[in-house]
Amino acid sequence: MPQIIPIKDLKNTSEISDLCHSTSEPVFITKNGYGDMVIMSIDTFEGISNKMNMYQSLINSEQQIKEGKVRDAREALNTVRNKYDL
Question: Record's family (predicted)?
């Protein structure tokens, strides 16, 4: 379940840091009852960034397949073997 805290609680930086590290989800900050910011631990941020990069790579791959930019795996491996004398 997402953590939601009011902006006035940001005064307690040590507690906020502990909260961010105790969950693998972002912590949502509200201002006057409305969403204002999101904070998270570095580990959570890196995990989300890695997933986003993977999803973008999959989207790019699917686009290349649609455009016909594909090669037979055996041909590709033979090209690499010949290039590097393997």
Answer: Belongs to the phD/YefM antitoxin family.
CA distance 15 to 39: 13
Q: Which domains does the chain possess?
A: 3-83 (3.40.1620.10)
Q: Residue 71: which H helix or E strand, with range?
A: none
Cα–Cα distance between 45 and 54 in angstroms, integer? 14
Distance CA 38, CA 54 (A): 22
> What b/e readout covers 58-83, taking b as 16+ CB neighbours within 10 angstroms?
eeeeeeeeeeeeeeeeeeeeeeeeee
Band (pLDDT 50/70/90 cuts) for residue 2 is confident
What would the two tokens of residue 9 be? 């609680």
